[in-house]
């Protein structure tokens, strides 16, 4: 049975500071690194193993993947990094404090920007300090000025279908280390969640989410393994 494990990066510096991050490349905090280590130890203790790892081109996800793999004794596994697994681009909100933005624009507007299906945040202005369009890692890619969840799905899902799904179909055990909204895009697809209900789907940092799939990659079971039932093993 194909097994896919998704993990959102451990707490990042801007998760801690409550700032909109998107494509901006911030590191994990010590707490975030500890979350990733605990996730790797938990996966190993539960008997999970992987053949392939996919991640974004953002250091908080790459580091999380590496820390998980180190804890599992699997740093040697092949890892594919692709911008299509990046966090959703937060546009002109990038760098702003989420609570201050809510105080300025209202909670409701910020909820729309953060969780609506197809309303993008305001675009990033040209010349913004957070503009990554000239970053070498994005050479040849049209860096978005902002993305809604729908826009994020439009790049995450084709990547899943062309790069990840074929590996699962041939029996590879896959770990994906990515971001809150790129993983919401995958979860929406894998769990068949509606455009309206995806609003309520939150993915915690550093907690592995297991998808057991059938041969057609249809959902059999999904769960967050927990350390509390380790004693029963
Ligand atoms: O990019 C960010 O700010 C976070 O990773 C995800 O933020 P959100 O929960 O506001 O979508």
Automatic annotation (TrEMBL):
SUPFAM superfamilies: Phosphoglycerate mutase-like (SSF53254). Keywords: Gluconeogenesis, Glycolysis, Isomerase. CDD domains: HP_PGM_like. InterPro entries: His_Pase_superF_clade-1, His_PPase_superfam, PG/BPGM_mutase_AS, Phosphogly_mut1. Signal peptide: none annotated. It holds the Pfam family His_Phos_1. The record marks 179 as: Transition state stabilizer. GO terms for molecular function: phosphoglycerate mutase activity. GO terms for biological process: gluconeogenesis; glycolytic process. Pathway: Carbohydrate degradation; glycolysis; pyruvate from D-glyceraldehyde 3-phosphate: step 3/5. Substrate binds at residues 8-15, 21-22, 60, 87-90, 98, 114-115, 180-181. It catalyses: (2R)-2-phosphoglycerate = (2R)-3-phosphoglycerate. HAMAP family: PGAM_GpmA. Catalyzes the interconversion of 2-phosphoglycerate and 3-phosphoglycerate. Homodimer. This is 2,3-bisphosphoglycerate-dependent phosphoglycerate mutase. It comes from Sandaracinobacteroides saxicola. The gene is gpmA.
